[in-house]
Each structure stands twice: as structure tokens, then as C-alpha cells.
Give the backbone structure.
Amino acid sequence: MKIIIIILARKGSKRIKNKNLLPVNKKPLILHTIEFAKKITSRNRVILFSDDEKIINIGRKKGVYTSIQRPKKISTDNVSSAKTSLYALKKYNEKNKSKFDIVALLQPTTPYRKISTFKNCLREFKKNINIPLVSVAKIKKNISKDFKLYCLRKIANQSTNLNIRKKIKFETNNYFNFVNGSFYFTTYKILKNKKNFITNNFRGYNLTSSKENIDIDTWDDVKLAKKIL
């Protein structure tokens, strides 16, 4: 089965201005994800979809597919990643003859990923491609109050669908888990039908590395990332 990787990086950001260009370890945040994606598949199978010319130029210099610019109508907060991805994939299909079955979404807010983790996630997803797979962070319930509140806030921000939000938080005896934004795997068929990367019966793949679980959305996340690093 052929895979395509999509990276969504819009210009606007309410919490951190120009977040995707924020320097992290002397690199723009977006560059971490672009460079990782190129290690996974050929550059013409990495779609960088953005409305920011600076971000697009970074992608062009790295040789990934940047021929589709993100229009304003799908560059706002209330447009889902799934809807944006479907638009980009449709435009990609119109210009390219290469086919793909699996869609992997990599969020630029997660700068640290391991190739081995990606391959393990993909291998797990292929065991049952009819159920989407997303990466999750496993957090001990006896963690500090401040960090627990941080995790719960991340959960609350991940979906406006209450039924899906309940599914996002997996409770066990000593742990709870939340989607960390590192990897999303689904099929193009399911994405078109469900119009969501997280369906009601999705599977979670646990990431144990603190660095891989970094998801930068707020300045609190930036501070946490600096502490971990």
C-alpha cells in the first residue's frame, strides 16, 4: 500500500504568533517535521500545505511538494484538519498521476519524532487499515497537579465533538492517555467518508518518549519543551 504524508501549516495562530516559524533548537518549528517526512518517503509524496510564503519557501528549498497554496477560506481556526487535508489531496490528485492508499498527517507542532516509532505505528495500522490509528501519550495519574491540568487542557482542546473527546481520553488503573498530535494514520477512503482523522472507533498508539510527546500550542508548551530538552 502506498502512503502520502501531509503537513498542514497555516499562517495564523492565536496563542503564539507565527508559531510554525518559532525557532526550536536553532531551526524553525516547521522544518523539523519537513526533514523528518523526507526520511520516511520520497519528497514528491510529502505535501506541505500552507498560506504562509515563508513556510512555502522553506518547503521548496527542501524539495517537498508545495505546488498547492492554502486559500483563506480553509485557513481559519474553525476549519478541521481533515477538511483541509481533503482539499489538498484533491488538488494533488488533479496534478499527479501517482496513487496512494494511506494518509499520514504530521503536525508541525510536534518537532521530535523517531523513524522507528513511525515505522512501528505504520506497521500497527496496517494490521487493520479499517480503523484509524493516532499516537497518544501515556501519563501517570499521580503526576503533579499543574501538569495534570495541562494534560486535561490538551484533551479538551482536541475536539469539539463530545463523543470523540470521551474516546480521546483512555483511563486505566494508574494512567490516562491523550492524543499528542505526532502521528495520524488513516486511509484516503475513510478520510473522505468520515471527514475526520479521529473516528469513534480509532486506535491509540502509545509513545513513551517525553521528547516525542511534545506538542507546541501555547507558551506553556514551549516552556515545557525547554524543560524536557
About this structure: Residues 69 and 103 are 19 Å apart (CA to CA). Residues 81-95 form the longest helix (15 residues). The two ends are 36 Å apart (CA to CA). The longest strand covers residues 175-187.
